[in-house]
TrEMBL record:
Species annotation: Aureimonas altamirensis
Pathway field: Cofactor biosynthesis; adenosylcobalamin biosynthesis
GO molecular-function term, one example from the UniProt record: precorrin-6A synthase (deacetylating) activity
PANTHER family recorded: COBALT-PRECORRIN-2 C(20)-METHYLTRANSFERASE, PRECORRIN-6A SYNTHASE [DEACETYLATING]
Name of the molecule in the record: Precorrin-6A synthase [deacetylating]
Example of a GO biological process term: methylation
Presence of keyword S-adenosyl-L-methionine: yes
Top EC class of this enzyme: transferase
NCBIfam families according to UniProt: CobF
Reaction(s) catalysed (UniProt annotation): precorrin-5 + S-adenosyl-L-methionine + H2O = precorrin-6A + acetate + S-adenosyl-L-homocysteine + 2 H(+)
Keywords: Cobalamin biosynthesis, Methyltransferase, S-adenosyl-L-methionine, Transferase
High-level lineage: Bacteria, Pseudomonadati, Pseudomonadota, Alphaproteobacteria, Hyphomicrobiales
Ranges where the Tetrapyrrole methylase domain occurs: 4-223
EC number: 2.1.1.152
Amino acid sequence: MRHIHIIGIGAGNPDHLTMEAVGAIAASDVFFLFDKGEDKSQLTDLRRHLIERHKAGAPYRLVWGESPQWASRESGYGAVVDDLNARKRLLTGDLVDAELKPGQSGAILVWGDPTLYDSTLRIMQAVCRERDDVDYSVIPGISSLQALVARHRIPFNAIGGGVTITPGRGLAALMSQRPETVAVMLDSRDAFQEACGADYVIHYGAYVGLPQEQLFAGPLDALAETIAAYRREARARHGWIMDSYILSRQLTA
């Protein structure tokens, strides 16, 4: 059999790595890295640092693949994601077939936690369905949302309350329900502005765990424009942004 470890590596701080993740890295022979371009080289560099640190001089190989790009979204978001994941599945399967030998273990290092808004598990499920000699395991990691609330030193939920987690594109539809606490990821269009005027507090974090980390906390109405301007500037300066935020009707800044 050939085995793949899907390893959550946390939100950016190398010390976020769990002991289980350290053991999985140490046990892996081959690491599959997917190049997303020069703009995101910092993310690749962190992965390489973690591998070098926890292999501790033991032999290993890095296998590189060029991550497929998003196609035109004219056909709709769901269709575009399905197409992207299909191309990732073909790429991953080809790399596993070519580079992972019988009895070896491979690893894919996933930002945050592999189970939350990441397609790696779905892709690996499909790869394994097509091959009877490959299986996989999942090592959880500290998610960006966990890192966010920790950096702000706040609880995730109000006492006895619930938390809704949504991508940015789903926030507008939720606002009519006046949710108590909403955690938002993958917001490409400043969706938090949809909640202005509804007396929410925002706890925002970008690049949490990385040297360029930036936090904002306070009444959403007072901070919405500041955060939107920061996001534009940060995206222009770094070429990418990784951020998340919590909107709450009860937590105080």
